[in-house]
Amino acid sequence: ARKNQAMKKRTNPETSASGAKKHRREKEDEDEEVGCSNSAIEDGAVSEDQCLPLEDELTFSDTSVALRMMRAQFPRIDQASVPPFILQSQLYSSVNDRTQVDRELECLRREKVVRVFKLNTGQDDHAIIFLDDYLHQVDRIVKRMEEKKQSDLEIFKWFKGHVLDSKLEPSIGHHELCSLLSLGGKVKDAHISLLINAGLLARQLIDPDMYWFTIPSIGKLWKGLLQERTPLIDKAQAT
C-alpha cells in the first residue's frame, strides 16, 4: 500500500503541473527583478541612474555581450602593451539598434565598467576600454617607472583614486584636474607633466586648458589601423 501511495505521489499530474507553474512564476519574478532591462528603460520605469551592475546587465544587454566578445578577440601585443579596446563604430556595426547601443553604453560608463576615449584622428572616433584593463595599464606604467627610480609616482595613485573614479567624461579641465588631484596631496606642475608623458593625458589643441584622457602606447597601433581603414573607406565610397 505504501508503494502504491509513493507511485501515485510521483505520477500525480496535478502535483507536477502545480510545481511547474510555481517554478515558472518564480522564474518570471526573478526576471522582473534583475538588471536594467531595455523595456523598463524605454517605458520610463527605470532610469539610467538605476542600472544594476554588469553581472545583471549582461542578461539583457546585447552591447555588453558584444563588448566582451570583441575584447576576447583583441590581439595580444606585449611589445606595445596596449589594453584591449573596441572602436565605437565597431559596436554600432555589431548591434542593430544604435539607440540601444548609446543607452546601454552610457549605463556601463556610469557604472564604471568601461571608459570611453576620444581618439585624435580628426574624426569623431571613440575607443571603449573596460575600466579594469585601463587601471591595470596604469599599474604597468608605474611599475616600469619604479624600476627606473622615477620620483613623484604618488601622482598615479591620486589619478586613479580621485580623477578616474569621479570624472567619467572623455575630457577634463585644468582647474578640475588639479582640484581632484589635490585630494591626494599637493599638486605640482611636474605631476601634470608626468601624467602627460606617461600617455594618460593630452592637451586639447583648441583649448590648452582642457585635457583628453588618453590610452597609453596606442599611437603606433592606431596608426596601423588607420592605414588599413583608409583604403576600405575609399573603396566603399567609390562603390
Automatic annotation (TrEMBL):
Residue stretches of biased makeup (Basic residues): 1-10
Region (Disordered): 1-40
Listed InterPro entries: STK19-like
Pfam families: Stk19
Family: Belongs to the STK19 family.
Protein name: Serine/threonine-protein kinase 19
